[in-house]
UniProtKB/TrEMBL annotation:
Identification of the protein by name: Enoyl-CoA hydratase
GO MF annotation: an example: enoyl-CoA hydratase activity
Domain of life of the organism encoding this protein: Bacteria
EC number: 4.2.1.17
Family: Belongs to the enoyl-CoA hydratase/isomerase family.
Keyword Metal-binding (UniProt): no
CDD domains given in the database record: crotonase-like
Enzyme class: lyase
Amino acid sequence: MTYECILTATQGAGPRKTGVITLNRPKALNALNDQLMNELGDALHAYEADEGIGCIVITGSERAFAAGADIPAMAQHSFMSAFKSGLISKNWEVLREIRKPVIAAVAGFALGGGCELAMMCDFIIAADTAKFGQPEIKLGIIPGAGGTQRLPRAVGKSKAMDMLLTARMMNADEAERAGLVSRVVPFEKLMDEALAAAEAINAMSGPSVMLIKELVNLAYQAPLSDAVAVERRYFHALFGTDDQREGMAAFVEKRAPVFRHS
Ligand code: DAK
């Protein structure tokens, strides 16, 4: 498939590879217009369907992961045209359908929809240059892709209110202290770090990886007792897999496991 607003590449040395998606509208700081979001959705679905891909990394440029939804494209809407058209592409929901892990590798600005996109990923690895923010309030709007919900879950109410109401940006160190990002590395090491994390995940058993993702997301939706009960059932279910037998046999035999993702 040919894309205009993103670049795609497959990386990795092992049998399961990493699908890398680079947001690529550099002149607009990767502002997320409908075309870009539709292409991102198509690329995510293609990697999801590809048995040879274990993990996906989404990244941007040195200057910006993404500076938000495309403001000029939004500017002319009225309430009625926004409401009727469902303003902003439906592909903003696609990340929720992806069962493989998606890592955001963020350098530079991750603002508005860019911050929301990063937060929809399973975890964020940040360059020391990263800046996160939800500045929609300065435009007379509010976040529309989960920012008021995912940010407080990630950083707590006080910091989320501060960022959402004042529109101030958070740098990479503060984002790491607050739990928004999992690690911070020098910009030059960002992709190496993200790809190494993806490669580590690719070597794990596919069913375990997918169930962990599903269960961690359930932690934000279900009561603890219900979610723990689901975890217990999945734990039992994994004893029906080849990979459980292989993983435990490999430990006993003091060798590396060779998972077949079955
Ligand atoms: N949209 C379009 N173009 C943008 C842009 C954006 N969000 N951000 C930057 N650009 C463009 C600039 O217009 C400029 O273009 P030229 O003038 O060169 O043609 C170029 O990128 C470089 O930007 P600057 O010249 O401004 O560069 P600076 O370094 O001075 O400033 C900045 C960088 C990131 C601080 C600044 O550009 C800025 O404040 N940008 C806007 C950030 C922002 O407000 N983001 C939130 C947008 S609202 C939804 C889903 C998502 C959303 C809503 C609903 N649903 C599913 C319903 C999301 C909404 C938003 O994200």
